[in-house]
Amino acid sequence: MTLVIIQKLIVKNVRNLNFIEVNPSLHNWFIGENGAGKTNILEAVQLACSSRSFRSLKSRDYINWHAKECVLFAELLSYSKKCISLAVSKSIDGAVILKMNGELVSSASQVAEILPVQVIVPDTSHLIDSGPSYRRKFIDWGVFHVEHKFADYWKTFNKLLRQRNTLLKQKKLEIKLLAVWDKAYVDFAVKLDQARRAYMEGFLTFLETKQYDLLFGKPIVFEFYSGWPTEMSLESMLKKSYDADKHKGLTHYGPHRSDLKIHSNGRNIQQCFSRGQKKLLYVWLKLMQVEYLQQKMARACVCLLDDLVAELDIKHRKFIYNILQKLDVQVFATAVEPDPILDKLNNSDIQMFHVKQGELVPLAKHSGIKPVQAVV
Ligand SMILES: Nc1ncnc2c1ncn2[C@@H]1O[C@H](COP(=O)(O)OP(=O)(O)O)[C@@H](O)[C@H]1O
Ligand SMILES: [Mg+2]
Questions:
Q1: How far is CA 145 from the centre of its chain?
Q2: Separation of CA 35 and ligand 2 centre (Å)
């Protein structure tokens, strides 16, 4: 496996992090009071590796209030000793500069491909309790990292969907024109669906090897839904729903309606799992995605775990830490207090930091990975 880790991270003007420079270990824990800047650090890691933030689409939100731009630098090291430097700068006027090994890069997805970042946040209601868009994001994170054309399919499909909806809203709709758009719409919808379906078939088969019924004490059934009944072609579904589409001015069938349905004993998981069980299911699913990516693509990820401790009992925290250790991925985790059970784990490469008003104080340090020179 090609393990990639962040061996150096420099953050300037991301929220309350005016300036931090850190040489992370394999497992890094950020401890501090509420509002200290712990989640901001995780946000900065994601920004440095993918130029995206899991908290906001607008750079204005995460650039420090007193600054005009934020700058991030990450030095990545693979175990084959290959070194990659990533630099991201974002201005409040929306300008973005991305560099890889000192060279300008035009698209964020080129950067995001290098080191997948798995974000695990405390609000599990997103994946389990909210609408399907969060579950689509979950699926698409995996598809993006195994099918490199996926980001392009997705962009084109979304454009076609918007065009189709605009046409549907027109008072005098030209049926011939709609038929032309529908052909392209179906083409890309099917490409997108095939990529998702291939990923989900592999992923769900992989999950079956994990005996998850024992873990949750209940049978769980995962079912991928394409966004239209697949016993019908999408073309015929569009024809069938034409009146409803026209009436609402939107398209009812397609991959924008896809979902991962989760049931237990014939009931939707939302109704029959406790909050703690939902949290465990959410964290476990996200970590299984990381493991699947390792197995399928021999790729490493960075895991960002925000406030993992809340709502998980000792037994299940141990279970999660054990998965993390076996995965051998770099971890950035936050907590209000150090988790006492971490001491009992056999992991020598844990570094703890105290976060105080956007500044970092190392608390305990273990041997890290020796840095090598990067091209900046
Ligand atoms: N754009 C910004 N500029 C400066 N500070 C910010 C900005 N956005 C949020 N903050 C500050 O960041 C802090 C919250 O950081 P956060 O990482 O969410 O805290 P926690 O340690 O609880 O995870 C708050 O003090 C908030 O005022
Ligand atoms: Mg936080």
A1: 10
A2: 7
